[in-house]
Amino acid sequence: MAPPLLTLSDIHLSFGGTPLLEGASLSVMPGDRLCLVGRNGSGKSTLLKIAAGTVQSDKGERIVQSGVTMRYLPQEPDLSGFEDTLSYVLAGLAPGDDPHRATTLLNALGLDGTEHPSRLSGGEARRAALARVLAPEPDILLLDEPTNHLDLPAIEWLESELGRLRSALVLISHDRRFLSNLTRATIWLDRSATRRLEQGFAAFEDWRDAFLEQEETERHKLDRKIVAELDWVRHGVSGRRKRNMGRMRALQQLKVGRSEQRKVAGNVNLVVSEAETSSKLIAEAKAVSKSFGDLTVLREVSVKVLRGDRLGIVGANGAGKTTLLKILTGELQPDSGSIRLGENIALVTLDQRRETLDPEMTLQYALSGGSDKVTLNGQPRHVMSYMKDFLFAPEQARTPLRVLSGGERGRLMLARALAKPSNVLVLDEPTNDLDLETLDLLQEMLADYPGTVLLVSHDRDFLDRVCTSVLASEGDGRWNTYAGGYSDMVAQRGAGVQARAAAKAEKSAAEKTEAAPPRMAAKRKLSFKEKHALETLPKRIKELQAEIAKHQAAMNDPQLFSRDPAKFEAASKGLERAGADLSAAEDQWLELEMLREELENG
Hints:
Layout: E1 6-13, E2 21-28, E3 33-37, H1 44-52, E4 59-64, E5 70-73, H2 85-90, H3 99-108, H4 122-134, E6 140-144, H5 152-164, E7 168-172, H6 176-182, E8 185-190, E9 193-197, H7 204-235, H8 238-243, H9 245-260, E10 281-292, E11 295-306, E12 310-314, H10 321-328, E13 336-341, E14 347-350, H11 363-368, E15 373-376, E16 379-382, H12 383-389, H13 406-418, E17 424-428, H14 436-448, E18 452-456, H15 460-466, E19 469-475, E20 478-483, H16 486-493, H17 500-513, H18 528-555, H19 560-563, H20 565-601
Parallel strand pairs: 3-7, 3-8, 5-6, 6-7, 12-18, 12-19, 14-17, 17-18
Antiparallel strand pairs: 1-2, 1-4, 8-9, 10-11, 10-13, 15-16, 19-20
Helix pairs in contact: 7-9, 18-20
């Protein structure tokens, strides 16, 4: 069996307080596909830096096999000192590496090599850094959040590129789909130590939950043993106590061991402040168009958003996602077409522009505006208690925002947004820098949220978990709505989101094909079940309306409750049930009717 390419053993590292790493280990074999997972702040990035040789541990051993080549992608790549992106990528090549591959990768990632580093966006800098580490095709690739700031086409391209490489991979990412598709083993960094699962990320969460459940069982057994031993100490006779000092010492060791057990860090407690119910209609856009100079991002787009919808908006960078979001919320007016907004809309936006907060502002001030209270659902709450819900320690209250990590800034923005009363949540890339556990809780909160959610995200798994429909860019300013999440959209349209250049090339090819003899194209049609529902739902709606009228008439009798409480209760429950059924039937009919119109006009 071949020796490991890279070995970290018994790694210890402290930054003054609680040890960050305590006996951590990592072994990378040829062809390994590893993901490194753990809570924000658990030390994942630090362990990867130790593996890359950029950080020295306090104790432990790092062994790299002779001749092994390695490349490391940090979370924040530094391109300073280079004239353009091509020179930056070429500087990462070793003698004998193919310089043409650098140009090929840059082009595949949407760059031409002439871009000046000072004028790059976060996404463009990340693309250049990816080209730099991929170009040499090293023996080991260490990638820290490689999908950050990338759009969906770039993420899917990167996934494909990494899948074909022979390099061993060690990945840190919050993108579940990315990790599940690429990894074959998992390193869990938990409470300063590492545990390895010889399966990819898809199996990790069930394994982790089973481990924590077993750990809790063992902790409970230890607690019971301590109680039993304490009872023996209190009630045993003096002579027996003297003859069993060994048992006394064992009890003391049990208590010390129990006190030193480090529990898993708590979960973020997500509670959203709710406003009054909005109108049934949230927003309706009819044939809206919007251009910026010669670039048309919206071309006669029509979409209706109803109360309770979870609408995902997906597309490549520059497709117009944020523009569409601003039009649907009334922040921006279209060049043509109409936009109608509903009544009683209480809108809260969580966007990715975290730099809008003063970096010198303290954490407490950012949450409470200088007060020591935060109001949630009309009830005052001490800001320290609210900070604890989002895993901030009391001593961080006066911490300036500039020293917070990316994950901490993400939790802060969540805390600020969820404290405001709302019935419409607008989430623009909410998953950036959040760990997997916080993403789980955010998804559960959105599932229970009674209002409407408008979501822009490049996280395919999060879109699948949250959305009931997806509005996708088809290129050239055209947008279409698909029922379900991102995977449902891919199944319906036969492809994921394309880069703008690819979409433009596809449109050009389609226009050339128009001159050829016409062919019958495969076209989405209503299923038998959908057709049957469209035909039968109007009758069902009328029946429910009649049932509601019947129950309402019975309850209009002022003497009914005193005369026959059981009948009153039955009428009340019947009215509530019929009302819910009517709302569901109307929603289903409206959705199917819109689908029918779209298919007939498409």
